[in-house]
């Protein structure tokens, strides 16, 4: 979940394990990782396959035989929306036959938006296809029917949208999983595998509040913030170095800031949205504070510290 910062031309790079491509490519290149700048090729969708990047046009995606017209309860627009979309599991497994194996090994889809927002979504969640599981879709807006403005700004053309099972839990999917203005997706190890400085102490019990809070941090905070200088996104300040917000705000004020940033400091241009209980429950917020408090004793110097 985020406030919109910018639009612009889009691309999508997916780090995959095989060289197959599901649709005609317009260009190929190599390089680029999750921390690199997003390409600004207009109306293009670039798929990174190993060290290669294949780029397809928006028109090619819309002509894909797997494209469907669906209606979803849109968590960005807060109303039902009709759209063109490809089931994400079908789209990915066509290019990555071992996607299920990668998911079982804890792989994550690092979804990078053109405004710098980065969501880290477990591959197991994105590959769900059973009736009672959330189902992810890659939605594409035609050039002559762009997405409506969101929070007053244009977005698109690529979005990650969901059909979720009924009930308040919605299969574990919330607004933080609905990524718009997508620029790139890479299949990577989990954040704690990629960035060891995010890990709690080795003797932390697996089911503890600290470990649960680490998972909340990765889902709800890591999209905009780094910790110990590690991360893909830097829209907000680092949450541990040189000081943790639990140190300079205290847990009560930090909890208030998370729920409603404007309640603690009036800042009309603040990028941070209010994190509601549908996204982070009260129990999860308590766990998150436990993780941040624990990590305040496990600081690492920022990357450019002298």
UniProtKB/TrEMBL annotation:
Residues 208-296 form the Cytochrome c domain. InterPro entries: Cyt_c-like_dom, Cyt_c-like_dom_sf, Cytochrome_c550/c551-like. Residues 1-27 form the signal peptide. One of its GO terms (molecular function) is metal ion binding. The keyword Electron transport applies. The keyword Phosphoprotein does not apply. Transmembrane segments: none annotated. PANTHER family: CYTOCHROME C-553-LIKE (PTHR37823). This is Cytochrome C. It comes from Pandoraea terrae.
